[in-house]
Specification:
150 residues, 2 helices, four-stranded antiparallel β-sheet, Jelly Rolls, mainly beta
């Protein structure tokens, strides 16, 4: 059975021939948190809520979320950014109250990732929540994005 290396370990494994240091957001980086809070006021389908801004080189590790029951129907929120509205979460059900859950981020689909856990922003970016399926009720949503930055 063959031995293999992660992308990050491979950078340092062959130090004698091809050493390449890992970026700060790959090894020994500083974990940071960006908090957000919003009072929903009947946002409609396709409305976008700007949650927070992440710096360039931020690598997303997780999102924590809490909200009131925001839907009389079956409203969902996609969590992402202007380039990919559901980059992290495709359909968060907000039809009942949620108490600070760690959201399950979409699975990475490539190396480097283009969606989900571990996605790295090359420029300063605003994370958004986009309303789908039904309008939102009045209520509070809050949470944070956990990331490591260079």
């Amino acid at each position: 059975m063959a031995d293999t290396n992660s992308v990050q370990y491979a950078k340092i494994a062959n130090a004698a021939t091809s050493y390449s240091p890992n970026a700060a957001n790959e090894s020994r980086g500083k974990i940071q948190v960006e908090f957000f809070e919003h009072t929903c006021e009947s946002e409609s389908i396709a409305d976008t809520i700007s949650l927070c801004q992440l710096p360039a080189n931020a690598r997303v590790l997780g999102i924590k979320w809490a909200s009131a029951d925001l839907s009389a129907g079956s409203a969902t929120l996609a969590i992402g950014d202007a380039d990919d509205a559901d980059r992290f979460v495709a359909a968060l059900d907000v039809s009942s109250a949620i108490a600070y859950d760690d959201l399950v981020l979409r699975s990475p689909d490539a190396v480097p990732t283009t969606v989900g856990f571990g996605y790295e922003y090359s420029a300063t970016t605003v994370l958004t929540a986009t309303v789908a399926v039904a309008a939102l009720n009045t209520g509070i949503l809050a949470g944070c994005v956990i990331y490591v930055a260079a």
